[in-house]
Design brief:
This protein has 7 helices and 2 strands, in the order αββαααααα. By secondary structure, the protein is mainly α. The radius of gyration is 20 Å and the shape is globular. It starts with a helix and ends with a helix.
């Protein structure tokens, strides 16, 4: 148990002093960088030879995934949702890969942990999402329109609506962190039995299904919040 909880803890790999400040590179940040680099390379390779006529199978799959994200955005945020397709799509693929990155531990010498098991990572993602939500409200309603929406239908609800901008990212952060860290601990306990047959089914659930499900939930709630921000009466 002590060994398992040691793996849960945040590990600092490097400390870089810059102008009197020390920047720490933790294991979560390192894996996040790996995931980001993989996605950038994959994006380049998948989009460099796009064809309008006779698209290949890979292009068809990519277009299908883009269409799913597009439908998700327009359904939840109306026609304004199209402006947020790049962010929502990026968030979905990043979380999807980050949550299942431990599947690559079958490669000799590789031992990766989901960066989302670090609450600092999920907090940062939630903060960025709520900033996007605020931006959406300011962009499509204007500052005055956004402020007016806080007192709709009556001024007494303003404090509660303002409170939502704190509770929403907190909910996003803790939901993702709680599910990923719980799945991580359970799988480490199962792996400690060293019985492959018993490990297979929980691994398929917690590392694939639950990881992708949590990525979708985080992304879906983000676009729903954006839809609420741009909603006009």
């Amino acid at each position: 148990m002590e060994e398992i909880f040691e793996r849960v803890e945040r590990v600092v790999l490097f400390r870089i002093p810059v102008f009197g400040y020390t920047f720490e590179l933790s294991n979560a940040v390192f894996v996040s960088l790996i995931v980001s680099i993989v996605l950038i390379i994959a994006s380049f390779l998948l989009t460099r030879k796009l064809k309008a006529d006779n698209p290949g199978k890979v292009q068809i799959v990519v277009e299908w995934l883009v269409q799913i994200v597009s439908n998700l955005c327009t359904t939840s945020a109306g026609h304004h949702g199209k402006a947020f397709i790049p962010y929502i799509g990026t968030l979905l693929v990043y979380l999807g890969l980050a949550n299942i990155v431990s599947l690559f531990n079958f490669i000799p010498g590789v031992h990766l942990f989901p960066p989302t098991k670090d609450i600092n990572v999920t907090a940062a993602l939630a903060l960025v999402s709520i900033i996007v939500v605020l931006y959406a409200g300011f962009r499509y309603k204007g500052v005055k329109g956004w402020a007016k929406s806080l007192i709709d239908p009556m001024p007494i609800v303003a404090p509660f609506k303002l409170m939502e901008y704190a509770t929403k990212p907190l909910s996003l952060c803790l939901r993702l962190f709680g599910n990923i860290i719980a799945g991580f601990i359970i799988m480490e306990l199962v792996y400690s039995l060293r019985i492959p047959v018993i490990s297979a089914l929980p691994s398929a659930y917690f590392e694939i299904f639950d990881g992708l499900l949590q990525a979708f939930i985080f992304t879906y709630l983000t676009i729903v919040y954006i839809g609420e921000a741009v909603e006009t009466n």
